[in-house]
Design goal:
about 160 residues, 4 strands, elongated
Length: about 160
């Protein structure tokens, strides 16, 4: 599996969940539990996969390849440089503020034709803001995962003092 394919599989696997809990320094167990709780699967034009308690599995060449949760955490650790993490956390904070500000119910389109244009304008502005917020968190998540898949794992060397 190429680094690009690996990143795509991880992104499919964690889709619908925030990366925050998987970032270094955070307890990943609740985040992994949330992701696994969905037990979702997908089938795309190039591959099919599923999320399991053991990791993210993808069909490859008649078999199954698994990216374990430890491997996912390693990808996130490698990709979450200080700059990328700061960008993600800023997007995550903006998402939280945006979510808190959302009304508990949706404004229904007015029956009065004279009020509909103003309603349409508000809806368009709300949708643009929603897209901006979601795109920021998706883009920063993608940047961390793609960078983590591109970078080689650091091989630790043992200094024997010889």
């Amino acid at each position: 599996m190429t680094p690009e394919q690996r990143a795509a599989v991880i992104l499919y696997g964690i889709s619908g969940s925030h990366l925050y809990g998987l970032l270094p320094g955070n307890d990943p167990k609740p985040a992994i539990s949330h992701i696994v709780g969905g037990m979702h699967s997908w089938q795309g034009p190039n591959f099919a996969g599923r999320v399991t308690p053991n990791g993210i599995e993808v069909a490859v060449g008649g078999g199954v390849e698994r990216i374990t949760w430890d491997e996912v955490l390693d990808v996130v650790r490698r990709g979450a440089t200080a700059e990328r993490r700061a960008a993600y956390e800023a997007a995550y904070d903006q998402f939280g503020e945006w979510a808190k500000a959302q009304p508990s119910s949706i404004e229904v389109m007015p029956k009065n034709p004279g009020e509909r244009e103003a309603w349409r304008q508000r809806r368009a502005e709300e949708q643009a803001e929603s897209s901006r917020i979601h795109n920021a968190i998706n883009d920063t998540t993608r940047a961390i995962i793609e960078a983590g898949c591109t970078l080689e794992p650091v091989q630790e060397t043992l200094d024997l003092g010889i």
